[in-house]
Design a protein that fits this description.
The complex is a heterodimer of chains A (128) and B (133). Chain A is built from three helices and three strands; from the N terminus they run H-H-H-E-E-E. By secondary structure, chain A is of the alpha+beta class. Chain B has a three-stranded antiparallel sheet with strand order 1-2-3, with helices on one face. Chain B is α+β, with helices and mostly antiparallel strands and 133 residues long. In chain B, a hairpin with a 5-residue loop joins strand 1 (81-88) and strand 2 (94-108). Chain B has two helices and three strands. At the A-B interface, helix 1, helix 2 and strand 3 of A face helix 1 and helix 2 of B.
Chain lengths: 128, 133
């Protein structure tokens, strides 16, 4: 077999495999980035809930103080469309300040389902 | 040229093993460390606050309930937390909470954890000088 024929025999073989391998690797990196962002948002919401309940711990604190503080903290940590799926609620019950958040995080790839979860925080309120 | 057939498969496997898997393990492990550190801080703070508010009662049931509640909020198994609350003196003294939490060295998604170390934290709160018994 001549050199020219030998080259024609596997021409393009590397390219197709390289493209497929690169695509798989890039999708993998996107999924890893998606996981990283989602875990960051989950930690940020937890921090915001903790800030909220801590703000309402003094005797004069109420649910609105908790909610305002939690939303302030949340919007300082998370920006953009990610905040659209985060719903924070606060309440006082049995001497405790309670904060809950329902979170729905959109996926980076349309084929994946959204990640939804609920977070909770509470703190003992100061007594007289 | 025939000997080079399929070498991309080898490179791809090597890339997955050497680059992608370590990346995913790091992405999955780092947030767990941060979350558990924060959980330990909150557990220590809430346990100390509860014990100070219940002073002079030394019953540990309430503290245990607070610890269990916070641990559940953060998704930390109760077995991974060790909490010790001590009272130092009466009025004007301190309630001190020591918390140790198990940190997984590597968190492998869908597989489990590998290796661990303990993170410890302490929170102290003063008992009011004019606190009634």
């Amino acid at each position: 077999m001549s050199v020219a024929a030998d080259r024609r025999g596997d021409s393009g073989m590397i390219t197709i495999q390289y493209v497929v391998a690169s695509a798989c690797a890039l999708v993998f990196f996107v999924l890893a980035a998606n996981l990283l962002v989602d875990l960051y948002v989950r930690a940020a919401v937890r921090d915001a809930l903790d800030e909220g309940v801590r703000a309402a711990v003094p005797l004069a604190g109420d649910a609105s103080v908790c909610l305002d503080r939690a939303n302030d903290a949340l919007h300082g940590l998370v920006h953009g469309s990610l905040t659209a799926g985060i719903n924070v609620r606060c309440a006082r019950r049995d001497g405790r300040v309670i904060a809950d958040a329902d979170v729905v995080l959109p996926p980076f790839l349309a084929l994946l389902p959204a990640w939804s979860f609920r977070l909770h925080a509470e703190a003992l309120q100061e007594g007289p | 040229m025939k000997r080079s057939r399929g070498f991309i498969a080898v490179e791809f496997s090597a890339a997955v093993a050497l680059l992608l898997v370590p990346t995913v393990v790091l992405v999955a492990s780092l947030p767990v460390w941060s979350e558990r550190r924060h959980a330990a801080t909150v557990v220590a703070r809430e346990a100390a606050r509860y014990a100070a508010q219940q002073w002079p009662s030394t019953s540990g049931d309430g503290v245990n309930a607070v610890v269990a509640s916070v641990a559940a909020d953060y998704g930390v198994p109760a077995d991974d937390l060790a909490v010790e609350v001590s009272e130092n003196g009466g009025r004007g003294g301190q309630v001190v909470a020591h918390v140790a939490v198990v940190m997984p060295a590597l968190h492998l998604p869908l597989i489990g954890d590998a290796g661990s170390w303990r993170f410890t934290t302490t929170y102290a709160i003063r008992i009011d000088d004019y606190r009634s018994r």
